[in-house]
Amino acid sequence: MADLHLGLFVLLGFGIGALGTLIGAGGGFILLPVLLLLYPDAPPEHLTAISLAVVFFNASSGSIAYARLKRIDYRSGLPFALATLPGAVLGAYATRYIPRHVFDAVLGTLLLALALFLLLKPKYRFTAMITRQYRTYRIVTDRDGTVYKYSFNMVTGILISVVVGFLSSILGIGGGIIHVPVLSLVLHFPVALATATSHFILAIMSFAGTCAHAVQGNLSNSVPVTLAIGMGSVAGAQLGAWLSHRTQPVWIIRALAAALLLVAIRLLPIW
């Protein structure tokens, strides 16, 4: 795989790490389209392997930063993360059977659907919910003393996580772009906790997917590029977590939607 100067990949990783951590998405949804543009002839499994490995670096660094802020719901995040593992491994093996043009179209369609959902969903409220229909209750207090109370259906979260694990691994996008909306809109997590907990889930899931890709040899020709982007994302993740502490939840969701929309338009075969 022909490489650009590794310093440029470090800068790319820094930007991806900052934005990915800010919105809790891991940055894979940005990195993979960039790799698709830089390497138009590369097999999808090689690019997804790079992207997923960088997501692991980014999510691990971001999780450490969010842990300091005490915004990770570990009791919920751990079962969700474990539920993603079977799909993450299976998705890594299935990527090689998808033609490149089909891969681009599927990824673009998924990103477009998520972007439109976040932008157009009527009467969206950036607040948690506690109702009798949900049996799992959580109370989380962050470092600043802010108390978050919410409830959700654990079974629904686990089932969705199984699907997220497969999609994120097969597409190399990390899954945060799906998990953050699911945690906030479907499971009623406060957005601040949704982004942090999503990063914790991503760290575990992307590690499993990366290991599966490595066993297949999908990273053998791209270790320098992967490490360069990964190192940049580790530093960028610290900045993203710092910014998230000072950004209103509504702007986090809007930033996520706008980024998804731009990437989807570029990937879809409409030009």
What does this structure look like?
Helices cover 71% and strands 4% of the residues. It is mainly α and 271 residues long. The protein has one domain (6-267). It has a two-stranded antiparallel sheet with strand order 1-2. The chain is globular and about 50 Å long.
Which descriptors would you attach to this protein?
mainly alpha; 10 helices; two-stranded antiparallel sheet; 4% strand; 271 residues; 2 strands; globular
Topology overview:
Blueprint lengths: L5 H17 L5 H11 L5 H26 L4 H21 L5 H21 L15 E6 L5 E6 L1 H18 L4 H11 L4 H26 L6 H22 L4 H19 L4
Antiparallel strand pairs: 1-2
Helix pairs in contact: 1-3, 1-9, 2-3, 3-6, 3-8, 3-9, 4-6, 4-8, 5-10, 6-7, 7-8
